[in-house]
Every structure is written in structure tokens, then in C-alpha cells.
Amino acid sequence: MTSGPLSLSEGRQFTQLLFCTVSQKKRILVADDSETIRALLQTALESAGYEVDMAKDGLSAYELGSNGDYDLIILDQLMPGLLGLDVITRWHDEGLEAPVLMLTGVDDDRTAVESFDRGAVDYVRKPFRITELMARIRMRL
Amino acid sequence: MFSDQLVPVAVLVIFSIDAALLTGLVLLKSVHRRRMRSHNVRRQGYLGLLSRHISFDDSVDPITASMAEDPAFLDALIDMRNAITGDEISTLHRIVNHHGVIEKQMRYLDTSLLLSRRLRAAVALAELGDETAAETLMRHLDDREPEIRIQAARGLGRIQWTPAIDQIVSRFSDEIPWVRVRFSDTLIGYGIKATWPLLAYIRINHRFGSKGPALALRTIGQIQDDQAVAPLLEILEETSDLEIQIATVDALAELGSPEASAALHSRLESKHWELRAKSASALGALGDPSAISRLTTAMRDENWWARRSAAAAIARLPGGIASLYRSLDDDDPFAADAAAEALADAGELVSARERAKTIGADNEPLLAHMGSESRS
Predict the structure, then answer these.
(1) Which among B288, B263, B267, B266 has a CA at the least distance from the CA of B277?
(2) What is the predicted pLDDT for the residue at A68?
(3) Which of B31, B80, B168, B263 is 20 to 30 Å apart from A68, CA to CA?
């Protein structure tokens, strides 16, 4: 370990590294009406270096997702306002390109298939392993 | 004169008491609202704290003893326990054990004089699903409070504590109906481990009352254990109780085993229309098209519900729709009506309308099935 002021080249390297990290910070929207899930995902995602926005109902999820430039959207199915499947359908119709990962307590294959049909890239059932979910997110980003 | 002076005083006193009561109520409500808000803020904080512990094994954020005492912390623990699965639950269990959360809740459940605290403890133990609470929960299956008995069973089911199965089943006869139904839900969660204790309970008790055994039979149907088919058929032969016979037929229908077919065929001859109707429905659930012929005869039953059930069962079987079309020309007009209704229910509206034209527009049950379009 060296201490003291950085040399010019070290300083440049540090600035480049910092710039690179900031400019590549991926943005994720988490839409879930469960406060617990939001807290868990916010903690895990922010600690992993992602920039995270939160929505707690279907309508605000739709609005944030439509207006924000997200690299990934994590979307619950059963939310007040609009169901996750309805939100993803609207985005699909509007040509939103952000990949959507469905995270849902709905445990039936039909919902999973419908989610994929409407453009979801992944489907995770609740309760879930946070380590597995993080791995799936890393794979998409 | 004296009483005239008393009236305004009395009005003033009553008004003052009312105002004082109202102020007290408003104050209480305001205090409660503030406490709830503060509780939720703390709970949110604890959720973040627990999230860090679950997301990072090496999290150094301290969880202090005073935090662990906080009811908001308990709520956050329960919420988190329901959100995660797999290895991460063990992190949560480490926190729970380190702070003696389970021991504390067991103590509250055993000794607290406050019902609300005991209820809260029972729910917490049921939700956290820790095996160290099993013996305490077993004791509280006999608790004087119905909701605590329910939570005790739920907690034991959550940790799949098999010694509890017999005790839960044995309470079926004595329990109040809504507790019995919740016990049934718990036993369904145990899966096939509960089949034989339930069957044993039915065998012993079906002669002494039908409520408990009937629910036990429906529980078996929900568990979906094929091994129950043969014992259920024996029970169907042995019992003369109508409610138990119906519940057995329901369970056989849920299990959907072709072994039950012959027994169900013979129940179509029962003197009880309820059993004839149930047996017809069950034959539809088994999916065996060889039942169509016998069910077609059952469409001429003297009872309208039995006729309707037989026709609906035929509609579920392979080749059943074609058979129902043929029955539209049955000599028995009631059988033809039943066929038309079943066809309408199956989405074959055109044929149902034809039938309506033939029999006239006053056939209300049939028209009701076809909706307003055909009425006009």
C-alpha cells in the first residue's frame, strides 16, 4: 500500500476508474407493493452498485417505467392499481425496451407463460433467494 | 321551582361529561395513530437492517437487545421470514436465536395475562417456524382460546412437526367448526403424512357423528394421496351416514382414481338424491367415458339436481358432448332439458337455443342458461 499524494498517472487512472463506475451505474426499477420486498431489494441492489427507483403500485410502476431509462425492471404481479401483467402489456405495446423480470407470489404456470408472452425476460417466484435473484440480475445486465 | 333550576344544571353536567368523553376518545385515537406511525417507521428501519444481514453474511450493523425487544422488530422478522427462502432463512434464524426471540414469545404465550400479547406470541411462533417452539405449540393445541389453537396448529404444520398430526386429528370431533376447518388446512399442508392418521380417525369415529369425519374425508381428498382410495371405498361400503357417504364420494372425486368407478356407479341407485347427484358428478371427475351410458340413464332421474349433475358430468367426459346432442331427442323431456342445459353450460349455445324453440319459451331454467340474447 502506498500512502501520500497520488502521482499524475495514478490520479488519471483513479479519475478514469471513478468516471467509468459512475457512467456505467445501471438503473433498476423495483415495483412491488410489499414494503419488505422493496427494502430487501433496495438494500441488496444499492449495495451491489445499482441505482434503484421504487414503485409501490401498478400505476406508478407504469409511469416510472415509461418515463425512466431503466436497464432492468423488477415487477410484481399482484399490485394495487394495475396488475404486473397489465403493466408489462402496456410497455410491450409502447415498445419499451427495458428487460422486465417478473417477481411474483402467483404460483401458476399460466401466469409465467403469459408473462413471457408479453415480453418478460425472466420469472422468479416468491419467496425467493436473494443470492439467486442477484445472480439472475447480473446475468441480464 | 327547584326542579326548574335543576334542568339547566343537569344539561350542563351531561354536556360536560359528553365533551370530556369525546375529547378522551379523540386523544386516544390520536395517541394510537402516532404510536402506529412510529411503529411503522421503526419497522421500516428494521427491514433495512435485516435486509443488510441477509444480503451480506459479513454485515456489521448491530442488532441490539433493545431492538430485539421492540414489537416492530418482531413484525419485521416475520415479514422477512415470509419473503425469503432457502439458506437465507438460516441467517434469520441465527438472529432470532441470538436474541432469544423464540424463548421470549414462548414465555408470553405460556404466562402472559394479556390475550393480545398471547395472540401476538402465537402468531409470531407460527410465522417464524422454529422447531424449538414445537413442544410449547403442542401444549397450546388445547388452549382455551380458539385463535391460539389455530396458530399453534399452523406453527406445527409450518415446521412439519409430525407428532402433532395425531393430536390435531383427534380434536376434529370436539372442535368448533371454524377451528376444525383451519386444522384441516394445516393437515393438508402436511401432505401424505396426514393420510393414515385421518383414515384411522374416520374409521373409529364415523359411527358416532358425521361432522368431524366428513371434514377429515374432504381433507384426504385435498391431500391427493392415491393410497387413500382403497380405504375410502371400504368406508363407503361400511357407513350408512349420508353426510359421510357424500364426503367420501367427494374425496374419491378429488382423487380421480378409476378404482372408484364401480362403487360410484352403484351409488347412482341410492335412495338419496344427494348421493346420486354427487356420485354422478364424481363419475364426471374420474374422466372415464365408459360412464356415459350409465349417466345418460341418470339424466332421467326423478330429481332435477341429480339429472343436472349427470348431464354436467357427461359434458366433462371424452365424447360426452356428442352424447348430449343425442340426448336432446330423448323421449323423456326432463332428460332432454338436462342435456340442453349442460350443452349451454359447455358453450354449445346453438343447440340449446334449438331446444328452447322446440319446448317453447317458458322453460325458465333453460332460458336463464342461455342469457338475454336467446330470450329476445
Answers:
(1) B267
(2) 85
(3) B80
pLDDT in tens, B44-93: 899 989 988 888 877 778 888 888 889 999 999 999 998 998 888 888 88
Calculate mean pLDDT across residues A78-90.
93
Q: Which residue of chain A is at minimal alpha-carbon distance from B82?
A: A127
Report CA dihedral (B233, B239, B242, B247) to the nearest 10 degrees. Answer: -40
∠ CA B23-B36-B110, rounded to 5°: 105
User: Structure pTM?
Assistant: 0.75
Task: Indicate if the alpha-carbon torsion angle B139, B141, B143, B147 is positive or negative.
Answer: positive
Number of cross-chain residue pairs from A and B with Cβ atoms under 8 Å apart: 55
Give the whole-angstrom CA distance, residue A62 versus residue B158. Answer: 36
Residues A132, B126, B110, B178: what is their CA dihedral angle, to the nearest 10 degrees?
170
What's the CA gap between B57 and B55, in Å, rounded? 7
**Greater confidence, A25 or A62?**
A62
In a 13 Å sphere around the CA of B94, the CA atoms on its Cβ side amount to 10
- Evaluated on CA atoms B158, B161, B165, B168, the torsion sign reads negative
CA distance B52 to chain A (A): 6
Q: Which of B287, B366, B353, B299 is nearest to B331 (CA)?
A: B299
Q: How far apart are CA B280 and CA B294, in angstroms?
A: 9
Residue A72 · residue A141 · CB < 8 Å = yes
A141's grid cell:
445486465
Alpha-carbon dihedral angle through residues B32, B34, B39, B41, given to the nearest 10 degrees: 160
Name the residue in chain B with its Cα closest to that of A134: B55
DSSP per-residue codes, B63-84: --HHHHH-HHHHHHHHHHHHHB
Average pLDDT of A112-141?
90
Phi, psi angle pair for A29, to nearest 5°: -105, 125
Q: Which band of pLDDT confidence, cut at 50, 70 and 90, is reported for residue B209?
A: confident
Residues of A in Cβ contact (< 8 Å) with B47: 35-36, 39-40
Residue pLDDT, tens place only, B317-344: 999 999 999 998 889 999 999 998 999 8
Residue of A47, A126, A132 lying closest to B55 (CB–CB): A47
- Cell numbers 349451454 correspond to B344
How sure is the predictor about A140, in pLDDT bands with cuts at 50, 70 and 90? confident
CA angle (B292, B293, B299) in 5-degree steps = 85
What are the grid coordinates assigned to B87, written together?
439458506
Does B258 sit behind a cis peptide bond, omega within 30 degrees of 0 on the bond before it? no
- The grid coordinates of residue B168 equal 390435531
Residue B48: partners with Cβ closer than 8 Å, 6 or more residues away: A39, A42, A43
- Cell 360410484 belongs to which residue? B264
